[in-house]
């Protein structure tokens, strides 16, 4: 390289560096904005002008163009769900992996029961009540959720109709009864002992819901939700405010009473401990006081986490994922020492199967929220 060229390049570089450092803040912002517009226009042009080649749709979702007919792209046509898993009868698309649904027969979970009326019809999508219910299903769930939703930092932006969450999400539960002069909140509403007042309180903070539907669902949960039934029984058994109830994070081994385990795929009163305040417990256990003003954070790895936050989906208070679920031998059906991962568990739960009604998927917008929740909290653990 000639010395004179080297000198010229160095001078150019120095000039550019001087220009950058001498710019005002306004000039710098304008320059950055111009650069951002240039990059986004280049990307859009690439997406628009590229045709039927597979690479051309990479990241195309970020520059979606209504004038492009994406169905003309070969890679968009994925066929129909006519591949059936021989182990679990999940319906899949042709190119989906064999093990996606049940790890080739190694994961087998107790099916979730379809809900009774009126919930069954409300999620059907047929009729005006159902259309109304599915439009406002998140508000209906808010009426009945037993834990509160929180985040370390919620950022609301003026021009955006959504909010961003920074840091961790958490769900918290209070005591079973409110401290004197406080309103009943979340789980405490179930134990007011006065049905019309209970409905009033549920509707007070959710003005888009119909009182008649809230009343019917309230009756359903009092009859069928095993967690509510369990909490009511425990409340009668707790001798004083100095005692608390403990629901273990993991299911205890099934033992000999398999029928009982099948019937109640949720914690039952035999699995609940009543202990005095001060006793040491595992950090993942749910510990509910009879009455105090403290909130407890529910760990996402507790098996009741999903049911406490999504009663419309888990209407019986069914167990979600926990660390004690084991894989089975696909040939003999017997349990192995290998644990089912949270990814295995939720892949299995969210599948459409032959001759099976998947209530979770029918909950539409609430299902979307639930999926985001489990992705944020559970799957990121990469266990
Ligand atoms: Zn399968």
Automatic annotation (TrEMBL):
Residues 1-11 have a biased composition (Basic residues). Residues 12-24 have a biased composition (Polar residues). Residues 25-35 have a biased composition (Basic and acidic residues). This is Helitron helicase-like domain-containing protein. Residues 1-35 are annotated as: Disordered. It comes from the Eukaryota. It comes from Pieris macdunnoughi. The lineage of its organism: Eukaryota, Metazoa, Ecdysozoa, Arthropoda, Hexapoda. PANTHER family: ATP-DEPENDENT DNA HELICASE (PTHR45786:SF74), DNA BINDING PROTEIN-LIKE (PTHR45786).
